[in-house]
Design brief:
It is built from eleven helices and 13 strands. The chain is of the alpha/beta class and 334 residues long. It has two domains: 236 residues, 3-Layer(aba) Sandwich (Rossmann fold); 95 residues, Rossmann fold (3-Layer(aba) Sandwich), CATH 3.40.50. The radius of gyration is 20 Å and the shape is globular. It starts with a helix and ends with a helix. InterPro entries: LpxK, P-loop_NTPase.
Length: 334
């Protein structure tokens, strides 16, 4: 893969020019963005791959759901349906996509969970609902500039910041680094839990935020238990299990488990992997399976796996959560 990306380097200027031109047309108003008179918060990134958008959306849901009618609107990556879909009791990972289905399973009636590749149409459909939402969270929509969000939250990982990356196809950036200027808030995700003030300052010098941008540092922590739909087990009591991952970067999870001196085999699939009949046949031979919450949403439909299928939850911690929460709530109420 690295060889192919290096070979593709001559195409980088072409991708850069096209994506820059597109942004310029939106900046000049030649291409139109639709604004709305109620709070819309966009959570996204400049790069492909896992920067922690799903945990951030869940953080915002938890922050706002008790005071506002909240909706999430996602593209619904790799779903089997088309157009606008609103989650209900008959929904599945196939009809919504794994991450929106995770939102629905976790929050049920607390939020509207919807998907539509056309975010403008998705917003219009949400507004037609009885008891329509007061706040909409756009999931992975930083490049979807047909909608002008009132607040843009940009995520970048501590290990692979956008300032050290290149645009596709050689790098992982969907657009040039200059796109970060559209962000109101930048959250550096997946930081070491022990990150120091000096390390934060060094990172800030790398990304050089504008004076109007707020930067926060966040880390993830893993639960001490694995859970299924009906049971819970202490992670320290597990022996010789199978870890199944279909996420962008499984390394932090693997390291967490190894640091606990747990014995396990790791079946590592690509992000948003669609499990085949052959995959399920292999998993049926395993005695105990631990997976991520996102992968659990795709696997729990298989009755042959239910008794042995568990997932490990994560919690997001933001370094100055008081300030972060205040910024979000101030925007929503303004």
């Amino acid at each position: 893969m690295n060889l192919i990306r290096n070979i593709a380097f001559p195409f980088v200027p072409v991708y850069y020019a096209v994506s820059s031109l597109r942004n310029t047309l939106y900046d000049l108003g030649i291409k139109k963005s639709t604004s709305y008179n109620f709070p819309i918060i966009c959570v996204g990134n400049l790069s492909v791959g896992g920067t922690g958008k799903t945990p951030m959306i869940e953080y915002l849901i938890n922050l706002l759901k008790d005071d506002y009618k909240v909706a999430t609107l996602s593209r619904g990556y790799k779903r089997k349906t088309k157009g606008f879909q609103l989650a209900d009791a008959f929904s599945s990972a196939e009809s919504l996509g794994d991450e929106p289905f995770q939102f629905y399973n976790k929050f049920k009636k607390d939020v509207f969970v919807s998907v539509d590749a056309n975010r403008t149409n998705g917003i219009e459909q949400l507004l037609l609902l009885e008891n329509s939402p007061e706040v909409i969270l756009l999931d992975d929509a930083f490049q979807h500039r047909k909608v002008k969000a009132g607040l843009n939250i940009l995520l970048t990982t501590y290990a692979n910041p956008y300032v050290s990356d290149y645009v596709l196809p050689t790098g992982n950036l969907r657009e040039p680094r200059s796109g970060a200027k559209r962000a109101n808030i930048i959250v550096v995700t997946k930081c070491p839990e022990t990150i120091s003030v000096i390390e934060k300052q060094s990172f800030l010098e790398k990304i050089s935020p504008t004076k109007n941008q707020h930067v926060f540092f966040s880390s993830i922590s893993y639960s001490e238990d694995v859970v299924s739909e009906e049971n819970k087990k202490s992670i320290n009591a597990l022996t010789n299990f199978t870890l199944v991952t279909g996420i962008a970067n499984a390394k932090p999870l693997v390291n967490f488990l190894k640091n606990k001196n747990l014995q396990f085999e790791h079946l590592n699939f690509k992000d948003h992997h669609e499990f085949s009949e052959q995959d399920i046949s292999v998993l049926e031979t395993k005695e105990f399976i631990v997976t991520t919450e996102k992968d659990f949403m795709r696997l729990k439909q298989y009755n042959t796996l239910k008794a042995k299928l568990f997932y490990l939850t994560i919690t997001v911690t933001i370094d100055d959560s008081v300030m972060f929460d205040r910024l979000i709530k101030t925007f929503v109420t303004s």
